[in-house]
């Protein structure tokens, strides 16, 4: 597969950055691809910080939940006493974005996972873990993504989930265009919380991160 070498030489997508407030955006740094999200957020004009403690969570204007292993991250949220504080901040309107495992964590219901996995209920959706198959089934495709200019988004799926169903008020942003999984939901948004099945942080295309930073976090950031 070809995507991991892109990380070190990724270049910003030529979208104009909205000037003004420089929001502090945390990346949950318990497990997963934390570094890639930190780099993407910095390229979008945010002040990115790793989050491992409640005090760090309390200080951010938005939060990214990265890809990784969802059950491991769920357990570590409890170990680090972050599970309930994060749930409370999400209920209070904290803007959040989750990719892959982050999507699973933000769900209200998760299928095909361990019984002790704790979801955050940030988006009213049912997500199926590892829906596209094992690591060897990872793939790339182009997606039409609602709200993004500049053509299709190149999406990288690695042991990815998909969304089985969404509740009222959840906007579907992207679906799989063709193949056996055609029509499956892979990107959603509900208010200030967004999630994707795929990993935009590894492709060099920053449009998904810019959407999060500029339309979901920056308008609510503390001056």
What is this structure, in a nutshell?
By secondary structure, this protein is an alpha/beta fold. It is 23% helix and 25% strand. Strand 11 and strand 12 form a beta hairpin.
CATH architecture: 3-Layer(aba) Sandwich
> Gyration radius, to the nearest Å?
16 Å
Tell me the major beta sheet.
Answer: 7 strands, mixed
* CATH C-level class: Alpha Beta
Proportion of beta-strand residues:
15-25%
Specify the structural class: alpha/beta
Q: Give the distance, in angstroms, between the N- and C-terminal Cα atoms.
A: 43 Å
Task: Give the spatial strand order of the biggest sheet.
Answer: 2-1-3-4-12-11-10
CATH superfamily: Class I glutamine amidotransferase (GATase) domain
Shape assignment: globular
Q: On the 0-100 scale, what is the average pLDDT?
A: 89
CATH topology name, in short, is: Rossmann fold
Proportion of residues in helical segments: 10-25%
Give the number of domains: 1
Could you spell the SSE succession in H and E letters? EHEHEHHEHEEEEEEEEH
DSSP summary: helix tally: 6
Low-pLDDT regions: 1-18
